[in-house]
């Protein structure tokens, strides 16, 4: 449990003793695929940590069109803002894989912990500031980077977060999800497919049935990296 909590950005700077305190207020639950954990507009009452599986977070319009904001996997966490301020959820969360397992923390228990342990509360605030800076960076990307550059940037980001380095290549041991990637990069599916075809043609990206790889050396020699 402690090793998992260490991977959660919100608790990244906590000591083992502090993590033991956090661990004491968590609950473990298992979910079927395509389970809606909460919907956009629901009250913010829980903070979630992915133990196994994957969860997508998205917004949708009245026509049912989705914009994927993030896909969370083992060690990732989500829902902390609504947990802290109690305001309605800004997006919907849905499990993607069979037997997805989450650790959850309720709003009530989390606020009690923060009131009782200022040292933990301070570190949580530092991490929230870091999240805000990352969001500002995403807004910058959407404003100033062209669509192909955004696609490549997010492929590289996922490779850095989830991949295994082997020489000049990074191996990501999960199937490439075009819907999730187009949502993360903020591009239409046809734009994403055009970039993917070009990356494959240049032998920068290799897509398999259950994994994909990125050749970093060829990427940095390509026009995508200026």
Automatic annotation (TrEMBL):
Question: Is-annotated flag, keyword Methyltransferase?
Answer: no
Keywords from UniProt, A to Z, are: Activator
| PROSITE patterns hit by this protein | CNMP_BINDING_2, CNMP_BINDING_3
Q: Which positions fall inside the Cyclic nucleotide-binding domain?
A: 10-131
Alphabetical list of InterPro entries matching this protein: cNMP-bd_CS, cNMP-bd_dom, cNMP-bd_dom_sf, Env_Response_Regulators, RmlC-like_jellyroll, WH-like_DNA-bd_sf
Which PANTHER family does this one have?
A: CRP FAMILY TRANSCRIPTIONAL REGULATORY PROTEIN, HTH-TYPE TRANSCRIPTIONAL REGULATOR ARCR
- Please identify the protein, giving its name as recorded: Crp/Fnr family transcriptional regulator
């Amino acid at each position: 449990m402690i090793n998992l909590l260490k991977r959660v950005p919100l608790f990244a700077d906590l000591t083992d003793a502090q993590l033991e305190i956090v661990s004491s207020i968590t609950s473990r639950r298992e979910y079927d695929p395509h389970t809606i954990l909460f919907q956009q507009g629901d009250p913010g009452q829980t903070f979630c940590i992915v133990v196994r599986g994957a969860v997508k977070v998205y917004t949708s319009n009245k026509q049912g069109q989705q914009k994927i904001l993030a896909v969370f996997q083992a060690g990732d966490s989500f829902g902390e803002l609504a947990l802290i301020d109690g305001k309605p959820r800004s997006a919907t969360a849905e499990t993607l894989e069979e037997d997805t397992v989450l650790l959850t923390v309720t709003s009530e228990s989390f606020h009690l912990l923060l009131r009782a342990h200022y040292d933990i509360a301070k570190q949580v605030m530092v991490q929230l500031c870091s999240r805000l800076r990352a969001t500002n960076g995403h807004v910058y990307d959407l404003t100033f980077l062209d669509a192909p550059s955004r696609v490549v940037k997010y492929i590289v980001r996922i490779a850095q977060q989830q991949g295994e380095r082997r020489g000049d290549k990074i191996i990501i041991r999960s199937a490439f999800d075009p819907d999730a990637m187009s949502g993360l990069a903020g591009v239409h599916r046809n734009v994403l497919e055009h970039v993917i075809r070009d990356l494959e043609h240049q032998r920068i990206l290799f897509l398999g049935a259950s994994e994909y790889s990125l050749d970093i050396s060829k990427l940095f020699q390509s026009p995508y990296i200026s």
